[in-house]
Amino acid sequence: MLVRITGEIKNYPWGSKDLIQEHFGLGEAGQSVAEVWFGTHEAGQSKLVTSGQNLAEAIGSKLSFLVKFLAADSPLSIQVHPNPAQAKAGFAKENAAGISLTAPERNYKDDSHKPEILIALTEFEALCGFRPRAQLLEIFLAFSESEPRFGELAALAATDATVEEIFSELLEDKALAQRFSDSVEPIETDSLAGQARTLVVGLLNKYPGDTGALVALSLNHVKLAAGQAVYLPAGNMHAYLSGLGLEVMAASDNVIRGGLTSKHIDKAELVQITDFSELAEPVVVSKKLAEGLVEYPVAASEFRVYRAQITGANLLADLDLPAGAVIVCVSGEIAVGTSLEEREVLKKGEVVFVSEAKKFSLSGSGDAFVVLGS
């Protein structure tokens, strides 16, 4: 089976009014297009272009993963995703409490975990995992010169206080969030502290008084070039800030939020499922498999992600197809062929689902991502 599929467009307020429209020709001009979903998740079903049939019906099953275009013009929430045991327990607990699946206060929409990877398609900014303690102490000390509260936080960070304890101080200090922009004086922006101050002030301008902006200080501020990626396993605290990316995740919609959002925030649950380990290097190191083919290694059983850069002198022939796959063209023109003598030619923004064949090949000139399921 080799079929073209459509994506489900999501018009969330934080989305961009031009990134997805201009790059892929999807969505209406002037609307905030935040995400386009490709997969079989109930909240965003792909359909076959030829017939309009739901992909899940066409293949008789559901995919283990979900692929998205994501375009952020404003920051997404500070959030974490649960591990499998936490997801099952949380889903059962909210069901037992009679909370509707569509209720705004619902944390767990299903009983699955949600490991995910974000691959930048343009320059992309994100917060990902807790920064090393030495960096946090440097920021607190620099801020303490004009705001005494950061002197207290620096003293805490200099002791054997846990990351969770420092995080909790930031998460609950509404007074500091209210006065931060006025009380913390500008610092040279090339410095770590200067960049951190600029980040927090920008977040507070969008979300006045939100302690999620203070929490951002404790997280790695990552600036990705196109093709770079961050991987977000269970418990990884993160937020996407700006840019266009390709997101791949286990087929789940479980999100627990702690700030920078108008949606439901559950600080107690956030603390319960967060992994407070320090993350010194948040950027994924890709692995070259062949000329024009790299893998983004992830510790997830539901999916594997590859980037294929095809030129006239470089085609990828007879690649193994152990399970169903979604192939997304993000630039140029890519021809997808299978060992069953099927063929589709994709332009940027076009997507196919392929299965049943033992092999597939890519040719043409362009850039594509291949997501294999379990």
The tally of beta strands, per DSSP, is 19
Please summarize the sheet with the most strands: 9 strands, antiparallel
Structural class by sheet pairing and helices: alpha+beta
The H-and-E topology, N to C, reads as EEHEHEEHEEHHHHHHEEEEHEEEEEEEE
Distance between the termini: 17 Å
Based on the coordinates given, report the CATH architecture of the largest domain.
Sandwich
Q: How large a portion of the residues is in β-strands, by DSSP E?
A: 25-35%
Which shape, going by the Cα principal axes?
globular
CATH 4th-level superfamily of the largest domain: Jelly Rolls
Total count of domains: 3
Average pLDDT rating = 95
CATH class of the largest domain: Mainly Beta
- The rounded Rg comes to 22 Å
Alpha plus pi helix count: 10
In which range does the helix fraction lie? 10-25%
Low-confidence stretches: none
CATH topology-level fold name of the largest domain? Jelly Rolls
